[in-house]
Amino acid sequence: MTRRGALNLLLLLLALALGAVAYFQPGRDQGQEGGQVPLTALRAGDLSHLVVRRDGQVRVELRRQGERWRLLQPVEADADPFRAEQLARLAEAPSLARFPASGRDLAPYGLDRPALEVELDGLRLAFGKTTPVGSRRYVRLGEVIHLVEDLYYYDASAEPLAFVDKALLPEGARLEALELPGLSLRRTAEGGWRLEPPRGGVSSDRLEELVQAWREARAWSVRRPEGQRPDEPPQARLHLAGGEVLRYLVVAREPDLVLVRPDLDLAYHLDASQARRLLELPSGEGEERDSGGEGSGSTPAADAGG
């Protein structure tokens, strides 16, 4: 065999050895390789209480209320349903491999002092390091160490306020009146909408479009308020069935539309283009311009709608 051939053979053997290390992963008991089984015996849809701790401190706490999740920490508010379900699905994460934790040095796995822990209805899972190859995460459950896809760690380690619902109007809430800067609407007995005080030349379709914009509005980010607030910022007041009133302070329109809920001390950031949709009447092309008359602002046909 030539010198080059021997060198190539040596490199091939080295590559095979590295591949074996990557596949079998140091410290894994091959007898424990049982295929992809669920990480826990719990079902994501049955969970009712989720807690995320970092360095022993609670960062996120959620509790299911009926079909919805409620955020209890870091603030009491409706939870983002997608984020909550992403966290709950950790219960059914495939265990790609597993081996006993007892008798092992946990430091190489990052499980001697886990930085992140998740409780699923009281069942505690500790997240450790990732594998050198493949980016799989070590997770300890009781006396067993599992390997799971790393995406579950990133779901759990999201910023706490990312778990706040981004919708401005709670799901299922019935809007009865809407007070905006220089503009007020109220639901009629027939289910339509009227301006208060009445104003001529404004179709009920335009009123419904404005209300629908609030029903559909979602922030792209929820944060703690920053900077100096105007002394008397414009505000929007949403009157809900049952008497609840949601109040949003309009603290900025550019570069983002920023609406602050003082009761939660949260700032909802929306695209600046949403300012006109949420705070002004839609343009009524082809309609009679406002004449200052005493029209009702709605038509019987629209009042029959929602």
In words, what does this structure look like?
- This protein is an alpha+beta fold and 306 residues long.
- The chain folds into two domains: 29-163, no CATH class; 175-303, no CATH class.
- It is built from six helices and 19 strands.
- Residues 16-34 and 288-306 have low confidence and may be disordered.
Main attributes of the structure:
19% helix, disordered C terminus, 2 domains, eight-stranded antiparallel β-sheet, 306 residues, alpha+beta, 6 helices
Give the distance, in angstroms, between the N- and C-terminal Cα atoms. Answer: 86 Å
Largest sheet: 9 strands, antiparallel
How are the strands ordered across the major sheet? 5-4-3-2-8-9-10-11-7
Number of strands: 19
Q: How many discrete domains?
A: 2
Please describe the topology of this protein:
Blueprint: H1 3-24, E1 37-38, E2 49-54, E3 57-65, E4 68-73, E5 77-78, H2 81-88, E6 94-95, E7 97-100, E8 116-120, E9 123-130, E10 136-141, E11 144-149, H3 151-156, E12 175-180, E13 183-187, E14 193-195, H4 204-216, E15 221-223, E16 235-240, E17 245-252, E18 256-261, E19 266-271, H5 274-279, H6 300-303
Antiparallel strand pairs: 1-6, 2-3, 2-8, 3-4, 4-5, 7-11, 8-9, 9-10, 10-11, 12-13, 12-16, 13-14, 15-19, 16-17, 17-18, 18-19
